[in-house]
């Protein structure tokens, strides 16, 4: 049985290892971040000294933004299926710019798409504008997280406009940010997916070719298709819990609006506070509509009195009273945050997701 190879999580290191597994000449690998903490997490989840499950080409470690990181097994077929379906949706193969870390699925799949398309990826340099200018492809694509899009809308607008499509993933894209991008003439396509689905598998609410979605219990999103992972590394129990008859049972809730998937939030984004069910993502979306709020996350914090205390972490000026009044204008007063923590910026993981664990550690 094959063993897993650890490779440097640099663009060149991952690109070379990917080329090998895609053409059949290489061996399965796990990309390792440069930082010591990230490297330790990957080595623990990937377990390179243990025999590797059949059919695996790459092991990616989830970000662990809301729990312990897991080793996700992705096959060569799943990687290629994701890249091919993406190109089909966007209008054909093209050249890709890599503005994110290649040891997470979003960055790795930019490199996969480049290899499948037979184009040379361009690595992000000192500025987006300079890097975009170096691209020569007839069709030009990139992918980034919402935080990057928001920043580049202010600093590199012409560069954003030069892309035929920009896939936005890694975290939910707020409605105000979608509107800003559209009004600026930027073709930003919100994507839904995760490491287990081989990156985004639903673009602008519509599944890619080869992907099917259903809504199960409590509006939980179920996904089936050719881009799905094979299982979790050395964890058959968890694999059996989330994969059943080809369907992947996600931790997200959604609804279908005019035939398009709208992600409501995670299953655990509903907390009971003072006997009232509060949907944290709905409160968060309302806060992001405030003209003086640049970014926000709303979390439930264990509390002896309330069961869960709703806390808003806000990048902006509004204080507690203003936040509570703003939320209460459109939502029940009982949903309004009981605490507000104002920050210069939200702490982020290397994957582009908010570091929820770090936020919670500061208020418990």
UniProtKB/TrEMBL annotation:
Domain AMP-binding enzyme C-terminal: residue ranges: 284-353
Transmembrane segments: none
GO molecular function, one term: acid-thiol ligase activity
A Pfam cross-reference name: AMP-binding
Official protein name in the record: O-succinylbenzoic acid--CoA ligase
Gene3D superfamilies (UniProt xref): 3.30.300.30, N-terminal domain of ligase-like
Domain AMP-dependent synthetase/ligase: residue ranges: 43-215
InterPro entries in alphabetical order: AMP-bd_C, AMP-bd_C_sf, AMP-binding_CS, AMP-dep_synth/lig_dom, ANL_N_sf, ATP-dep_AMP-bd_enzyme
Alphabetical UniProt keywords: Ligase
């Amino acid at each position: 049985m094959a063993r897993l190879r650890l490779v440097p999580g640099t663009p060149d290191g991952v690109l070379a290892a990917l080329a090998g597994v895609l053409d059949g000449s290489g061996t399965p690998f796990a990309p390792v971040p440069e930082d010591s903490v990230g490297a330790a997490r990957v080595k623990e989840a990937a377990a390179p000294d243990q025999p590797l499950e059949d059919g695996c080409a790459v092991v990616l470690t989830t970000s662990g933004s809301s729990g312990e990181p897991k080793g996700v097994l992705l096959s060569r077929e799943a990687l290629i299926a994701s890249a091919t379906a993406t190109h089909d949706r966007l209008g054909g193969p093209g050249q890709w710019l890599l503005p994110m870390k290649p040891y997470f699925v979003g960055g790795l799949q930019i490199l996969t798409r480049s290899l499948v398309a037979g184009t040379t990826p361009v690595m992000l340099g000192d500025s987006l504008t300079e890097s975009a200018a170096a691209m020569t492809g007839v069709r030009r694509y990139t992918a980034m997280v919402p935080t990057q899009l928001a920043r580049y809308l202010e600093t590199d607008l012409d560069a954003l406009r030069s892309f035929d499509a920009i896939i936005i993933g890694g975290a939910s894209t707020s409605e105000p940010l979608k509107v800003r991008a559209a009004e600026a003439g930027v073709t930003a396509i919100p994507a839904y997916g995760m490491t287990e689905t081989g990156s985004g598998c639903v673009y602008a609410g519509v599944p890619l070719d080869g992907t099917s979605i259903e809504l199960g219990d409590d509006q939980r999103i179920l996904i089936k298709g050719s881009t799905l992972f094979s299982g979790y590394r050395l964890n058959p129990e968890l694999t059996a819990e989330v994969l059943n008859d080809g369907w992947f049972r996600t931790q997200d809730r959604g609804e279908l609006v005019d035939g398009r998937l709208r992600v409501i939030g995670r299953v655990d984004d509903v907390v009971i506070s003072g006997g009232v069910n509060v949907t944290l993502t709905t409160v968060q979306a309302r806060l992001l509509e405030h003209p003086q709020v640049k970014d926000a996350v709303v979390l439930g914090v264990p509390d002896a009195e309330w069961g869960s205390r709703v806390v808003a972490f806000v990048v902006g000026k509004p204080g507690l009273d203003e936040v509570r009044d703003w939320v209460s204008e459109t939502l029940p007063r009982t949903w309004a945050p009981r605490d507000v923590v104002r920050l210069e910026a939200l702490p982020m993981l290397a994957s582009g997701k908010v570091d929820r664990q770090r936020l919670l550690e500061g208020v418990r």
